[in-house]
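We close this part of the discussion by returning to an individual protein. In the encoding step, the backbone of a single protein was reduced to a row of integers, each denoting a local shape. The sequence in question and its structure tokens are set out directly beneath this paragraph.
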Amino acid sequence: MAMKKKGTHKIEVEGSDVVVYGGVMLKKAYDALADNMNTYQWAKFTMLLEAAYKKGSIDGANEAFEQIDKGVRQALKAVPHKLPGRYKKK
């Protein structure tokens, strides 16, 4: 596989190559962690990364919904609201 995209790094995991999209600091951090990591530690590390990814995606979704709610509230304030029913006679 040719790595033409900027920020891609080939990492060897248990004998197979995995292409990771990230910066040089991510590659250095992985290299530091993977030096003496056995299969059990690798599985625990993978579960930790998955949990962090899920939490980040949930936080990102919450942030997006908050922005939508904020826009809806502003739109409701911009529309003049009149109470339903008949008006009082003068």
Notes: DSSP finds two helices and two strands in the chain. The mean pLDDT is 76. Residues 38-79 form one domain. The chain has two domains: 7-36, 38-79.
